[in-house]
Every structure is written in structure tokens, then in C-alpha cells.
Amino acid sequence: QVQLVESGGGLVQPGGSLRLSCAASGFTMDYYAIGWFRQSPGKEREGVSCVSASDGSTYYLDSVKGRFTISRDNAKDTVYLQMNSLKPEDTAVYYCATRDRSWCQKEAYAYEYWGQGTQVTVSS
């Protein structure tokens, strides 16, 4: 069955960096879009970034543009989210997700399969 496992979260000081990984199994990742979402207490889940399978195009939430970079390694069935210049407002549980389409969509409802999430805390 489809399985997504996130890793790489943790506690980091403001201005620091983290790299999240999303390891996929149970399907051929090459053909499907992979997105990263985040959710903090009391807030809705929001789309942070996505990489398509069709042409490799990417999407970024405005507040993370220039700081976060998404990449995919189909040979390793893994998608990465490099997060630099982290801010306290980036604190959230980060989830990766996939949908039965090759192109990205920023809304969470468009994704059928989800990982369990990894906590990112940005604090001094």
C-alpha cells in the first residue's frame, strides 16, 4: 500500500536550517506530484511546497519563497524540503502527501495519501 514517511524535523534556532525527507513506498513516485504541508495548533493545514512529476515544476507558499527548496530523487523514491533562514512562524507539524495526478495542487483536499508528520520547532 502507499506509504509516506517523513523525517528530519527537530528544534532549530531562528535563522537555522533543516532538511526534511519524505520516503515513499508502495507506488512508483516518478508519476505523481508530491506536496509538503504544515499545520500548527489552531490553524488550518496549508500547502508549503509541491513538485510535479509531469515537468518538475514547483510551487511555494509566498511566505517561504527564497528560503525553502523542494527537490525529488526518483531513484531513491524520496522528496526533500530544504528549509533555510527558519523563522518562529515556521513552527508546525510538516506532512508530505501525494495525489493521483502528476501535477501539483496547493489545496490539502486534493491529496489522498499522507505521512504521519514531523515536528519542526523554531525557537531560541
Short account of what is shown:
The protein is an all-beta fold. It has no helices and 11 strands. It starts with a strand and ends with a strand.
Helix/sheet category: mainly beta
Largest sheet: 7 strands, mixed
From the alpha-carbon coordinates, what is the Rg to the nearest angstrom? 13 Å
Low-confidence stretches: none
Order of helices and strands: EEEEEEEEEEE
Beta-strand portion reads over 45%
State the helical fraction.
under 10%
Arithmetic mean pLDDT: 96
- How many DSSP helices? 0
Terminal CA distance: 40 Å
Number of strands: 11
Overall 3D form: globular
Q: What does it look like?
A:
0% of the residues lie in helices and 46% in strands. The strands form two sheets. Strands 2, 4, 5, 6, 9, 10 and 11 form a seven-stranded mixed beta sheet that branches. The protein is built from no helices and eleven strands. It is globular.
What attributes does this structure have?
single chain, 124 residues, mainly beta, 7-stranded mixed beta sheet, 0% helix
Write the layout of secondary structure elements.
Blueprint: E1 3-7, E2 10-12, E3 18-25, E4 34-39, E5 46-51, E6 58-60, E7 68-73, E8 78-83, E9 92-98, E10 113-114, E11 118-122
